[in-house]
Each structure stands twice: as structure tokens, then as C-alpha cells.
Amino acid sequence: MLKNKNVQLIDILPIVALIVLLLVFGITSGGALFSSFNIQSVIRDSIPVILGGLGVIFVIATGGCDLSIGAVAAVAATVGAYYGSIYGAWMTVLLVLLIGLASGTFLGLITSRFHVSSFMASLALLMGLRGFLNVCNVKWEQVYLPESLHFMNGFGPALLITAVLTVIVWYVFEKTKFGYYCKGMGENENTMIAIGVDTVKVRHIAFIISGVMAAVMGLLLISATGGSSSTLGNFMEMKVQMGVFLGGVLVSGGMRSKIYKLIFGSLSITVIVNGLTISGASSSVTELAEGIILMLLLYITILLSKNKGFKRKKSGASNEEPAGEIDSQIA
Fold first, then answer.
1. Structural domain harbouring 217
2. Which of 6, 49, 1 is nearest to 272 (CA)?
3. Helix (H) or strand (E) segment spanning residue 212
4. What is the pLDDT of residues 98-113, one digit of tens each?
5. Most CB contacts within 10 A, which of 30, 188, 226, 328?
6. CB crowding 103-140: b at 16 or more within 10 Å, else e
7. DSSP string, 258-320
8. Is residue 35 a part of any domain in this protein?
9. Is residue 323 part of a domain?
10. Is 11 contained in some domain?
11. Is residue 122 one of the residues assigned to a domain?
12. How sure is the predictor about 282, in pLDDT bands with cuts at 50, 70 and 90?
């Protein structure tokens, strides 16, 4: 009974954290945080973070990471917008999705087939794509999104797109074997291999989903700015990771990876940035706060991961026991 209560307390932590942040910044801002304009602003600013998180959570659940999503978003949006201005809006959407698919496929191939660290591979891709983005912006000078796609910057359309994608991703992540395999790999990849799961394929698909969702995030980002620049999508990978971890998803992934945690975490990080801004904090102070929060989150999740491993050893559970349990749940 006590164990169930502990699980419930851990699972509602992201909700409690968001409520506490709203109260703290509501007081420090003199109530300005709760104005209708500001609430809409918080939700609007959370949308790209949520979209990026909807993809990267598959990778994180397996125990990996994807630091390339900000650069993928920027390059996909820039190339799509440039050729879309020539051939039409349909070309923008097509190229954005294809670039996201290609980057995810490439990163998934490197990490799953050649066993390169996801951290190093995604960091290298980030640097390469940022360089490519600078070349594109210098060569093309000015890149603007086709006017027919400017509607995506509207609060309603952006919210609707996010809601639809959230429902689809939630179903795949929470209700299908693929989502369960991703989380199972974060718990114990050897166990998943033992029950016949193709972990190479699962990891590859996880990175593909991350790349496609990053590209969709880029489309929303460029619709907000109207055009491309060398700073498009800058540090979005960090903000998305912070949103996921602030929601209570462990760095090591596993079964506690949940879509609702990502959503509440994304709202929380946006409330922090927005709250500091309307409370009079400078941009440098806001960035400092984000850095401190990220370090604290990493420290806490590392402690939780170690504690999880300690409990497993203490329980004396062998590899065969979890395998049987996971296999029965899948069946």
C-alpha cells in the first residue's frame, strides 16, 4: 500500500512543481503572471518545447539523448521556407518533413547500427547543421516563410496542431508495444534483447521520430519569426531537455517516462523564463537560472537513477525475472 502511495506522489510531482512555480512568480510579479495575455503567451511559448519533447522523449526513454533537435529544426525550416517561396507552401511542408526524417534516420543509423554514443553523435550533427545553416543564410541572404503558412503563427492553429500531435504521440508512446519497448530499453536493454526485442530497430525508429518532430517544431518557430536567421532554434535542444527532465523524466529513461510529465515540465520551464522576465530579471539572469536548474535536474535524476539501481540489486531480482514480467505485460 505504501509503495503505491509513493508511486502516486512521484507521479504528481510535475503537477505540484508547476503549481508552486505559478504561485511564486504570481506573487513576485504582483499578479501580472495571471493576466490573460500572459497566460496565452506562456502557452504559446510552450508549444515549440512540447513539440520538440514529443519526439525526443522516445530517445530519452531508451536511455539516449538527442542534442541536434534545435539545429534540425532550424535547417529544416530554413531550407523548406526557401524552396517553398519558389515552388509553393506544399514544398515547404514536404521538405521540412523530409529533412527531419533524413536527419533522424542518419542519427539513428550512427547510434544504433554503429554503436556511437548518442551524445557525441547528436552533438556532432548539431555543430555540422549549425555550420550549414550559416552557409544557407549567407548564400540566400533573406529567407521568409510563404505567406500561406503564416496562419501557423496564430494561437489557435498552433495549439490545434500541438494537441493533435500530442494525442497521436501519447497513443504510440503509452499504448503500443513500440512505446513499451522504448521504456523497457531504458530500464534494462539486456532484458529486452533476452525476450526477442530488436533494440537496434527500436532505437533507430526513436531517433527518426525525434527528427521529424524537431522539424515540425522548426516550422512553428519560423512561422513565429516570419523568416530564418543564424539564431533560429538556438538552445532549443537545451530548453526541450529541461522541459522533459523538469517534468520528472529520468535521464536514464525507463518506465517513468510519461507524456504528461513532458507537458507539465515544458509549461514549468516556460513559466520560469516568463516569470523571471516580467519580474524584471535581465536575459543574462534568466539564462543563469536556466543553467542552474538544468544542473540541479541532472544531479537529482542521477541520484534517482542510482537509487533505482540500488533497489534492484537489493531486491536480488535476476535478469530472468524482469524478462518474464515484461514479457507477460506485453502479451
1. 44-234
2. 49
3. helix 199-225
4. 999 999 999 999 998 8
5. 188
6. bbbbbbbbbbeeeeebeebbbebbeebbeebeebbeee
7. -HHHHHHHHHHHHHHHHHHHHTT--HHHHHHHHHHHHHHHHHHHHHHHHHHHHHHHHHT--SH
8. no
9. no
10. no
11. yes
12. confident
